[in-house]
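Quick check before the chapter quiz. The format below is the same one you will see on the exam, so make sure you can read both the input and the output lines.
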Amino acid sequence: MSKRRRVDYALTGGSGDVNPQFYSGEGGTGEESNYAATSAYISPVSRGLPAPRGKAVVMEVLKIFVDLPDYEALTSTAVANRARFISFSTRDLGAGFVKLSDPTVFAKYADEQVYAFTAAGTVCSFQPSTISLDLTDGAGHGILIATDYIYVQYNTTQFGAANVPFYWKILYRFKTVALTEYIGIVQSQS
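Here is the expected output.
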């Protein structure tokens, strides 16, 4: 086996798919402000993809890019804060607050803006709207997903507007794993 082939095999489990692809989506918080909503997206790695005997094809998530909704203009003179959250999971998260310790959550991002009007002026913290979450280890391996759906929860706190839009992209590739590993992944993500 050539050195190049060994590297491809080590990264992809034999699928040879070393070139990642993007999976994109968008969603929002629904018709209410200060609300959480979960949306389901069909996984790009569906059942029935061809795999060698005794193996299964799964999705290996490498990075997630998120374009968060912009904060609205300040409207209050009181010290206040507002936040925006996005969580990626392998099960429906509902509308409750999601903890990163949930074993089905594979990525979560939250940021908060704190502001106040004072005699000296306005104080406000700003965070970037577009963020990147790197889910790889030092060897280039990502998180393995073997479910039919990816669930994304959108959540805002103290936003005045409803239908706050979130946009995201998942950088992934196909990976081939043994059936025993596949079954273990499915069981842990259900």
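If your answer matched, good. The radius of gyration is 20 Å.
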